[in-house]
Amino acid sequence: MEIKDKGAIIIELNLKEAPKTSENFLKLVREGFYDGIRFHRVVPKFVAQAGDPQSKTMDLDDPRMGTGGPGYTIKFEPNSLKHKRGAIGMARTLDPDSAGSQFYICLEDLPQLDGNYVIFGRVVEGMDVVDRIVMGDTILKAEILKEWKPKSEGGQSP
Q1: Residue 10 structural domain
Q2: Statement: the pTM of the whole predicted model exceeds 0.70
Q3: Residue by residue, what is the 3-state secondary structure of the chain?
Q4: Phi and psi for 30 in degrees, rounded to 5?
Q5: 155 pLDDT exceeds 50?
Q6: C-alpha distances in angstroms, 156 versus 23, 73, 111, 150, 153?
Q7: How confident is the model at residue 145 (pLDDT cuts 50, 70, 90)?
Q8: Which residues make Cβ contacts (< 8 Å) with residue 138, sequence separation at least 6?
Q9: How many domains, the chain?
Q10: Rounded to an integer, what distance in angstroms lies between the CA atom of residue 148 and that of residue 19?
Q11: What is the CATH number of the domain that holds 134?
Q12: Is residue 154 domain-resident?
């Protein structure tokens, strides 16, 4: 994921622990959904959040900011992944099944969130870039660098 004027963030998804959430994120990346979207919420020592398509055109101080999504929601996918610094999770409303496209990156360990939100990946490179993100920073391009494919029963890749 390339952040304008900041640099690249490399994210590793956890398809084993959060398969449906990871597949949803990959689908949106393939569609170019995140390209041009801005980080609309950055709380120091907490999270940097993006994924609202309204952020492409709407003022960031508009009260509707942070309410947009892809036009559908996905089911809550409980797992054992923790809210460690660099973890990627799905933002949602109070309804656990309301996540769609908005995601956040943990800026610190946030154990108080464990079990309440779906963690589906982590930053493996570029945490220095994440630390410099401010509200309004733009995702220039999100792309898949390498896709993991599960091995078939015979131990061979399909």
Answers
A1: 2-141
A2: yes
A3: CEECCCEECEEEECCCCCHHHHHHHHHHHHCCCCCCCECCEEECCCEEEECCHHHHCCCCCCCCCCCCCCCCCECCCCCCCCCCCCEEEECCCCCCCCECCCEEEECCCCHHHCCCCCEEEEEEECHHHHHCCCCCCEEEECCCCCCCCCCCCCCCCC
A4: -60, -35
A5: no
A6: 22, 34, 38, 9, 7
A7: confident
A8: 3, 4, 36, 37, 38, 39
A9: 1
A10: 12
A11: 2.40.100.10
A12: no
Burial class, 154, CB count within 10 angstroms (exposed 0-12 / middle 13-18 / buried 19+) = exposed
Q: Is 108 a member of any domain?
A: yes
Domain assignment of residue 44, yes or no: yes
d(CA 122, CA 13): 7
Position 138: which residue type?
T
What letter represents residue 133's amino acid? I
Q: With respect to residue 150, please indicate whether it lies within any of the assigned structural domains.
A: no
